[in-house]
Structure formats: C-alpha cells, structure tokens
Request: fold
Amino acid sequence: MWEEFGLDLGAVLSQGDMEKLTRVLSAECARKLVEAWRAVSEEAGIVALLDRHGFDLRLANKIRKVWPRDTLAKLRENPYRMLAFASWEKVDRMARSLGVADDDPLRRIAAVEACLYRRLDAKHTLTSAGMLVGDVAAALRCVESTASAAIDRAWREHAIIVAAHGYQPVGAAVMEKVVAGCLRGLLAASPGPERNLFSGHLASAVAESIERYRSNTGLQLNAAQRRAVEMAVHHPLSILTGGAGTGKTTVLRLVHDVAERIGVPVLQMALSGRAAQRLRGATGREASTIAAFLRTAARGLVDPASEPLIIIDESSMLDLPLMYSLVRALPARARLLLVGDPYQLPPIGFGLIFHVLAASPSVPRVELVEIHRQTRSSGIPQIANAVRHGVALRLPDFAGCAFGVNFIDAAGDAIMDIVATAPLRENP
Reply:
C-alpha cells in the first residue's frame, strides 16, 4: 500500500476511499482495515484532546465505551458531555478553550446539571430553588437573575426535573419515581390470606410456629416479636427495625417457618457477602448477596409469576440506585420485608430508602427494643440503645483490660492512637 499511495496513505484510510484501496486489497480486507484505522485514529485523537486539557488519559477507554462512534465529534459538538467523567471547573475550562461562549445555552444548562450532580455526590437527591440559584451563579460567575434564567432554560430543555420543593437531576428523579411506584403498589396489594391459595390458615400457622419455637427452646417471644412475625407474613411491604441483640434473627427464623408452612418461597439477601453469610448461619436457610440476585434476574432465572417473600437484611445500607435495580428485578407479586437499624451508618450512595420508609406512618413497621442477646452482660447493647435514643450515660473510666464498657478521656488528635493501644495497656 505504501508503494501505491506513499504519503497519501493516511488520507486514503481516513477517508475510507474503497475505490483506491481495492486496487491493492480485497474489498473485505479494505473494509476491515478502514474500520481499524478509524478506531485507532479516534482513540489517538481522544488521548490528544484529554492530554491537551489536563485530563486523566485513562478516561479515553471509558469515553469510547459511552460513545463508541464519532467520539471526538460528539465531544467537540458539546464538550460538557465530559461532565460524566470530570468536574465542572475542568470541563468548563476545556469548553471555553474550544470556543464555547460565556452565554452559550449549552454552557448554562451544563452548569445547572453539574450543580445538581454535585449535590447528588453529597447524597442529596433534591436541591431547593434558592440553593440551586446560588450554586449556578457561583459556577457561571454570574448574577442570580442569569442563574435563574439558566435553571428555567434547563427545565424547558428537559435537562432537569422540577419537584415539589426544588429540583432534581433527571436520573435520580426517574429512579425515585420507579421505586416509589413499586413500593406504593406493594402497599396497595392484598395482604394476608388473600395473597395466595396456601395462606388460608395464616393465623394458625403463625401461632403453631411460635408455640413450636417456645417448646423447642424454652424461650418466649415478646409482644413486639410476635407482631413482627405476623406483620412480615401478612403485609406485602413491611419494615423490621431494632438494635443489636433485640431478636431480629429470631423473628426471621419464625418468618421462614411460617412461610414454609403456608407454601410461600423465601429469598433472603444482604448487601455484602459477609452479611449474607451471617444471615445464612443465623437462620439456617440459604442467603445471597443482592448483587447475586440481580445477576440471576438478569439471566432470566427469576420467575416473574412467582410470589416470593423477599427478605433484605441490613437494609439501612440500601441506596437509591441499588433499590432501583432491585425493584425492577422483583416479581410483580413479591412481598418485601426490609430489616435493619436506621441508627446505623447510612448507605455509601445517594438516597436514604430504609430511613424514609422506617419513618413513614403508612408503611407497616415493628421496632424491637428489648435486648435478648446473651452478650447483654457486657453492657454494650444497653449502652448502644441509650446512645441511639440520645441518653448520655456516665461510664466508668478505663483502667486496663476488663469486661464491660469504659470511658477513655482523649483529645481529638489522640483518639486513634489510644484506640489502637488501649487493649494492650496494663492495669495501673
């Protein structure tokens, strides 16, 4: 080909001039060569663009996965597409250097979206009008009236969503709408014996399971635990909350037993593999991670006509994107029991699903507060319960390794060092 085209070879390949190429290659070989040349040229162009504007060059592969064709053209057409990969400040600098004007509608709409997604990174799915105006004005370095006009333009262009008390990014708004619709559907569904043909003797099945548990263990369920078992098998959507040692696992064992008696399949899962393993050991039934369930559903192995009871442990860690994926994978007539502790750490991602549901008066909920676990003698469950309810306790000062809970007075910058060495200290 070099002998045929010489220095014009690059131009011939870039132009995809099949008439010239087929003078020395077969049509199929020429087509593949042009495709490969364009791919390499596109990648080189993207890398050069990123390098010129100070971006991480490793973004090139991610960008090409999103826009596999005409990538450079898309970025030059609207440089603010790069906001999916980098900060507003860096992307705006690149866009301005490529000739985007200060008052370009693309720039102003992108600023609005960038501010909403920055809030999303801070775990806020809703931004008030006043806050968004201030953020957009700061991003564009403009007066608030210009920022308000930019927000209005973004709304008219369907780049953002207007909510009851502010604004949302489109993606978060769509996910919230889907999740809320599914949960409302569960709340409106028929409870108890009307749910399937096998639950006609639901009340007696619950009573028999509780009595068998008492007979086998010698332990008596308290009133809250009884209500929790009844709630879980009666309502299509319910919430079980409680701190460590309050008997949530006991409730789950009995829920499994009742479900087996009335012929309802149970799928229990948790966010992490370790949590799923603990759930498996505590209940004596199979458990999986949520990710494993979603992979199973994606392969079409979850029967959409089935009516399982879905138990999700440690539900306080559910964020909005994960819940969105989960509800889309659930069978239409599934029941859902969310188990967790709203006083634990919130999810890593955005959206406080469990916390909102646990505080909603329209969602059936039982909170377990009585501590049962044998480790109560350590004092940890009681103190944790006091802390979660805002009660300040006077603890004995730490005096070396001992059983129980003690207080160590420490300056803020010394806490980690003391925590790391405290168990090794000798009694004075």
The longest helix spans residues 27-52. The two ends are 87 Å apart (CA to CA). The longest strand covers residues 237-242. Residues 222 and 370 are 8 Å apart (CA to CA).
